[in-house]
Amino acid sequence: MLLREVEYARPATIEEAIALLSGYDGARALAGGQTLVNVMKARAAAPDVLVDLADLDELRRIGFSADQSALELGAMVTSTQIGASSEVEVARPVLAEVVSTIADVQVRNRGTIGGNICVNDPTNHLPPLLVALNATMTIRSVAGERIVAAEEFLIGVYTTAVEEGELLTKVSVPTRRPGSGDAMDGVTLGAHGTYLVSAAASVSPGGVRIAIGCVSAAPVRATAMEQRLASGDFSEASVRAAAEGLGASLDPPSDVHASADYRRHLAEVSAVRAVLRAAQRAKG
Ligand SMILES: Cc1cc2nc3c(=O)[nH]c(=O)nc-3n(C[C@H](O)[C@H](O)[C@H](O)COP(=O)(O)OP(=O)(O)OC[C@H]3O[C@@H](n4cnc5c(N)ncnc54)[C@H](O)[C@@H]3O)c2cc1C
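Above: query sequence and flavin-adenine dinucleotide SMILES. Below: predicted holo structure tokens.
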């Protein structure tokens, strides 16, 4: 289907982009276009103005915070960039590992970290991973800048903490500390297909964070399992015991690919596998 007519703007600065987004009702940021253009073609979205972020080099940067405590990924950093980044390899290699399994080369070349989490499709790879990694998102508007934790950022499908007139500029991920390890597991439709259920885990000397994807409109923290593992016993028996009841605590959807009960089962299995692998990596 052909696109409905739409105004197109390609700002040269972040300030200009924000002015455009806040100056027009129905203005929408355009990142890699991998989802937005498709939903526009399907007439599921009909923005009046597209604000293309392609020229905003600042949003394509990968670097570190001034005190080196966080890896900083500009909102326009693509999956391919993350996969090839030496900074990511040093600071949080699980990000590169996970994005390399997203869809295909074309989607990874165009799709951005900002677009991935602003869509917040429950089957997307990055939302649960960024919750497990305790990432924060920087959002800018004419009023200034605010920082939001991943859990508060990811509200529902296509619904995030980014409000009208605002722009996501950066995702910050704490750099890996000695004795920590991360992993993501799950079951996909085909080798590089979308997830039926996913689980991301981050083990550190301070404890474990576990996030489950595809079981709700936004990633769900497995807090009871996290608390049972607070002793730091990551033996297989302990992790399996900690996962008991996780599935029952969830209210996942049923669809043509999997029943709710099957997703509950997959959530427990995926969480166990993710935590065991993260704990193994934490040992070095
Ligand atoms: C065939 C196909 C298969 C896919 N499979 C997977 C998969 O298995 N796993 C997975 O994780 N992903 C998958 N994706 C999604 C893909 O990885 C991208 O993350 C996604 O398409 C959106 O990224 P984008 O940069 O193209 O954003 P766009 O499509 O340009 O934008 C998406 C939305 O985010 C908003 N937005 C984008 N950037 C910003 C910003 N900086 N500030 C405010 N709002 C912003 C836009 O306004 C729009 O509403 C798939 C995509 C396709 C086309």
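The chain is about 35% helix and 25% strand.
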